[in-house]
Amino acid sequence: MHPSAIYAATVDSHTFATFRALVEAIIPDSPVSATYSPELTAGAADLCIHEYMIWELDHSLSLVLGFGLTDIPLSCSTAGLLNVGAVHLAASRQLQHPPNPLLWESGPFSAMSRNDRISVLAMLEQGNIDPGVLPPPYRNDLGFTRYMIDFLNRQTMFGNYSEWSAYGTTRLRTPTERRLEYFPVSWKQAEYPGVVPGYRALLGYMLTIERKGGESTIV
Amino acid sequence: MYDADAMFDADVIVIGSGGGGAVAAKELGEAGLKVLVLEAGPWYGNKQWANPNSERGGEWSSDYKDLDVGIYKKIFNAYENNMNDLVSGVFRFGPADRRRTPWHRVMRQKGEIWQLSGVGGTTQLYWSQSPRAFPLAVDNIWPISYRELVPYYEKAEATLPVQFAPTTPKEELFYYGAKKAGWPLIPTLNVTTPGYRPNPNAILPTNEHLMDQSYSLEQLSNMEGCTLKGNCVNGCTTGSSVDKIAKRSTLVSYVPLALKTGNVAIRPNSFVIKLLTAQDPKEGLRATGVQFRDTWTGEIGELTARTVVMAAGCIESPRLWLNSGLPYNEWVGRGLTNHCFDWVAGVFDEKDLMSIMGLPAVYPYVGHTSGARVDIPGTGIFQVSCLSPGLMSFLTYGFSEAGYDALNPPEPGAPWDIHGRVVGPQLKELMMNYSRTMSILILTDDETLYRNRVQIDPLLKDENGPIPIMHYTPSPKTLKRRDQLARYASETLKQAGARKIIRSDTPFGSMIHLESTMRMGYVTDTNCEAYQVRRLFIADNSVHFNGIGGPNPTLTTQALATRTAEKIVTKYFS
Ligand SMILES: Cc1cc2nc3c(=O)[nH]c(=O)nc-3n(C[C@H](O)[C@H](O)[C@H](O)COP(=O)(O)OP(=O)(O)OC[C@H]3O[C@@H](n4cnc5c(N)ncnc54)[C@H](O)[C@@H]3O)c2cc1C
Ligand code: SF4
Q: Do A201 and B185 touch (CB under 8 A)?
């Protein structure tokens, strides 16, 4: 197995499915142009952005606990947060669509429609839930919960629209060992030409500073 | 215990080599003092550290000849995820070893603190806008006058150097909209009336051969002068040597100049965890040195000096004060301002752009990351600012105090069509229009409040000690100004022809311009020397009295650091 497969194999399947459902709701595989092409349709789940998010959350925090510095992975507890939120939203009868009953037991968040998943995020962001029922480290900390919901949204977008997916088989390696394997699909969707050495796009200067003897004038 | 005539390791120790620290080091070195700089993060572009993110490498560098543009360009590859991932990027606030996690700050609100460790500090990714403060925000408010700052502004501007930004399509469109919206051109560096102007940027003038097809772009990128590569935020790589890189982070401007003095040695990967002090019979409590931790080995070292300059940034400078058990001062860590930034974008139609500019797109990825602005003393600034798609998507659509647009659409009559986060098919459609989208950064004249602060967590620690907790909520006055600026920016976009306007309503906890957590007049005197600890000076954004009215803060820090170096020499070394 290459290192990314090893890393992915260590993540439990609930966490994996929950993050897949998250990124799919934020960036779905809807077409972006009239002419259908699988590349232009690809959404965040197709680009494995759920794996990116899991990697990021598991590599973002360490604190001194007891005697030494300890890494604190956050993906599993964050998936738990989303699933607790899903159950709460369903219990308060605020769902727009019935969840998939086959998936409900194993992962309520991924059993929901995409719009309802966004409603779960909004509910947690607004703190419309008893903070005592949230899993640690979110328990009784609606501030950190708000921070995290915001992070989940923006980091999914950053992961998706940056070059990360094009690291291909090396995408979950230590960052210094990732290698670009192709041109990022999302950059095609955005019509971004990628990294180039420069653009011959000079249209002139509106003003210029001239310096003489420690003083400057503007021309 | 303390011997005034003891041998010191140096005349001055500087803590942090970012926007302010590098300037202090160069100026003090030039004055002939022996300077040691301790920097928590890595050094990119130095032969002593060929693989700075995976191997410990050397300890010190004090030789200009150590600089190596090949190593620099290999690391600064301009890919946005590699460069700017907050968790594990080349640019982050964390140890050099990218296998390790970043250093944590406690945030109980939405947003992100965008600061970097490493030689050059946060200027490695800054966009290099280098405006002066608004005189209105300094005169009769700061303990020193604007006039007092001007000669130091002149010196820092000439050293970086600062020049007005060139026009590329996005600036042309911005000027077109700003003029139609009624703003006059203000051809000045001392802004006292509202109007538009190109940004004064710390970027070398555009390569004179850029438009000459006989030079390949590859060739041009290894010569002196900006190539309008549009990647300032992801680390500029255009230039023939480290000290000729187009965008003038202190890593490529002041640091090479500091090394050239022959009096400055810099030690990266060294996190200062304690300020050392002693009672002097004449001076009272004074700084005598620092204790630091090697971020690779965990070993603790100590160095002593006649004076210490703290330039660890707006969070770490107060943290260091508090973790060192220095005398209580109710303003340490207090009065945080951050320009309460916001972000407004406009999506254009191809045919409108054709008729206005004769071009089919805005080309947000071309030219300086930000090249033009409207300044409004008393209110703030809005400046055209365009980024690579990953960064642009999250700043425009991913990030909001207002929540999701679809669940909470704009109030009727608002000048924007979208207010808050966008997700789902609508997001993909908007991102398909990325190349026809112009975005604008809003910087607010932010009221300084005691409640906005950096504190130390009573329980949580990392390897460098108790960690910072951040708290920031803007005042009603700040929010009113910010809203006004978002309206002005929307108007300029509309006048320029935008068909759809998006207001992010950026989370208040998103911080790029942190200032004023160790304020002059409260924590330091007008020389930037701490009232309660002699020979301890402050030379980063934290010593600002306020948010300088909204202009991007670094040039003011650099002017002040230049002045502080002069004061140190006069007071303790002449
Ligand atoms: C995206 C972005 C764009 C920006 N664009 C602009 C712009 O265009 N114009 C502008 O004026 N400003 C801009 N800024 C802000 C600018 O980067 C800061 O104003 C500037 O870097 C502040 O300088 P400083 O010295 O206070 O802190 P920093 O530059 O952050 O330097 C602090 C240094 O101290 C080191 N350090 C911290 N703690 C310790 C310790 N305990 N021991 C040793 N070393 C330590 C850090 O590693 C760091 O290198 C931008 C910021 C961001 C995030
Ligand atoms: S536009 Fe920015 S990144 Fe590009 S060459 Fe100029 S300074 Fe460097």
A: no
Report which residue type is found at A43. Answer: G
Please indicate whether, in this complex, the C-beta atoms of A203 and B169 are within 8 angstroms of each other. Answer: yes
Task: Give the structural domain span for A57.
Answer: 4-212
Decide if B189 and A192 are in contact by the 8 Å CB cutoff. Answer: no
Main-chain dihedrals φ then ψ at residue B273, nearest 5 degrees: -110, -15
* CB-side neighbour CA atoms (13 Å) of B356: 25
Cβ-Cβ contacts under 8 Å for B223 (sequence gap 6 or more):
B207, B209, B215, B239, B240
With contact defined as beta carbons under 8 Å apart, do B91 and B125 qualify?
yes
Number of domains chain A contains = 1
Q: Is the torsion defined by CA of B232, B234, B235, B236 positive or negative? A: negative
Round to whole Å and give the CA distance between B548 and B564. 18
The CATH number given to B10-163+247-336+514-572 is: 3.50.50.60
- What is the Å distance from ligand 1's center to B119 Cα? 10
Atom of ligand 1 nearest to the CA of B272: 42
Residue A217 lies in a domain: no
The answer to whether B183 touches B127, Cβ cutoff 8 Å, is no
Whether the CB of A33 is below 8 Å from some CB of chain B: the reply is yes
Cβ contact, residue pair B167, A203, below 8 Å: yes
Nearest to A114 by CA among A41, A50, A214, A26: A26
Instruction: Note down pLDDT in tens along chain B; length 574 residues.
Output: 456 567 899 999 999 999 999 999 999 999 999 999 999 999 999 999 999 999 999 999 999 999 999 999 999 999 999 999 999 999 999 999 999 999 999 999 999 999 999 999 999 999 999 999 999 999 999 999 999 999 999 999 999 999 999 999 999 999 999 999 999 999 999 999 999 999 999 999 999 999 999 999 999 999 999 999 999 999 999 999 999 999 999 999 999 999 999 999 999 999 999 999 999 999 999 999 999 999 999 999 999 999 999 999 999 999 999 999 999 999 999 999 999 999 999 999 999 999 999 999 999 999 999 999 999 999 999 999 999 999 999 999 999 999 999 998 888 999 999 999 999 999 999 999 999 999 999 999 999 999 999 999 999 999 999 999 999 999 999 999 999 999 999 999 999 999 999 999 999 999 999 999 999 999 999 999 999 999 999 999 999 999 999 999 999 999 999 999 999 999 999 9
Token pair 């910010």 in the structure block, residue: B482
Provide the whole-model pTM. 0.97
Question: Token digits for B399?
Answer: 């990030």
CA–CA distance, B151 with B245 (Å, rounded to integer) = 26
What is the rounded CA–CA span in Å between residue A75 and residue B335? 35
Question: Distance between CA atoms of B525 and B518, rounded to whole angstroms?
Answer: 11
Q: Is A170 on the interface with B (CB under 8 A)?
A: no
Of B187, B228, B404, the CB nearest to A198: B228
- Ligand 2 atom 5: residue of nearest CA: B226
How many Å lie between the centroid of ligand 1 and the Cα of residue B136? 25
What are the φ/ψ torsions at residue A216 (nearest 5 degrees)?
Answer: -125, 145
Nearest Cβ partner for A59 among B88, B365, B427? B88
The answer as to whether A218 is a domain residue is no
Burial environment of residue B352 by CB neighbours within 10 A (0 to 12, 13 to 18, 19 or more) = middle
Asked if the structure places residue A123 within a domain, the reply is yes
Q: Which among A114, A122, A162 has CB closest to B390?
A: A162
Flag whether A119 is in a domain.
yes
Quick one: which atom of ligand 1 is closest to the CA of B552? Answer: 11
In the stretch 182-201 of chain B, residues with CB closer than 8 A to chain A read: 185, 187-189, 197-198, 200
The residues pairing with B201 across neighbouring beta strands, listed in sequence order, are: B129, B163
The answer to ipTM > 0.90 is: yes
Reference A92, options A118, A139, A129; nearest CA is A129
User: For chain B, which residues make up each domain, given as ranges?
Assistant: 10-163+247-336+514-572
